[in-house]
Design a protein that fits this description.
Residues 21-91 form the BTB domain. This protein is 46% helix and 8% strand. The chain has helices at 8-12, 40-43, 47-52, 58-62, 72-84, 93-105, 109-121, 129-138, 144-159, 172-178, 182-193, and strands spanning 3-4, 24-29, 34-39, 64-67.
């Protein structure tokens, strides 16, 4: 069991307010029971944690929140975001998936959109079918992350089909495994069959907030048109 205190990002930049009068809440995460000491006012920025610390719930009296089923990396991303509005901890594909799922779970729409924006701003090459499979299996129906990665794979297959063909295709075996998943195979098949999609735009270059999540009727945080 390990214990972590105020993230470096909160000290070096972002939210520079000192919380000397703020109570510290113990947030215990995952099977390893990693403990984070987080200022209460910071946690209350998240609707879920705000509810946990209100209305006479056990967490309010004990000043502790237990998240046994959450991914430690995802919670570290959430904590960094709450303190500094940065997501520098996203270092690999799996980080994006677990962080996006956790942000969705805790209704943190702005964080979900920032994760999408960072993914779209990274240098892009080819998306692997195995990554799409991981996203598909780790997210819920209607997920914008699903939509983005599937659009990306569709684009790659149409524009660079040699990478996915049986003869020396770098991703042929991965695509073959992905197509064993009936749900994703069905969606991808119809996208590839749709002749209207032959003139494709790279999904990471689309303007606006096509892959953002919005509450009904709300404007995008970036001031872009909602999809």
């Amino acid at each position: 069991m390990s214990e972590k205190r105020l993230p470096d990002a909160a000290v070096k930049g972002g939210n520079k307010t000192f919380f000397s009068l703020d109570e510290l809440i113990t947030v215990t995460v995952g099977k390893e029971q990693t403990k984070h000491m987080i200022h209460e006012s910071i946690l209350r920025q998240c609707p879920f944690f705000d509810k946990c610390l209100s209305s006479g719930m056990r967490e309010e009296h004990e000043k502790s929140i237990n998240l046994p089923d959450d991914d430690p990396t995802a919670i570290e991303v959430i904590i960094e975001w709450l303190y500094a509005k940065t997501i520098d901890r996203l270092q690999c594909g799996n980080h994006y998936i677990v962080a996006y799922v956790a942000a969705d779970k805790y209704c943190m729409r702005e964080l979900q959109n920032s994760i999408i924006d960072k993914l779209c701003s990274t240098p892009y090459g080819d998306v692997t079918p195995s990554f799409v499979s991981s996203v598909w299996n780790g997210t819920a129906e209607g997920s914008k992350l699903r939509e983005l990665t599937l659009d990306f794979l569709h684009y790659c297959i149409v524009t660079r089909p040699e990478l996915y063909k049986p003869s020396d295709g770098r991703y042929y075996k991965e695509l073959q495994e992905l197509m064993h998943d009936g749900d994703v195979a069905y969606v991808l098949m119809w996208r590839l069959a749709d002749q209207r999609e032959l003139d494709l735009e790279h999904p990471l270059l689309k303007k606006g907030c096509v892959y953002h999540v919005h509450e009904d009727g709300s404007a995008c945080e970036n001031g872009l048109e909602t999809a």
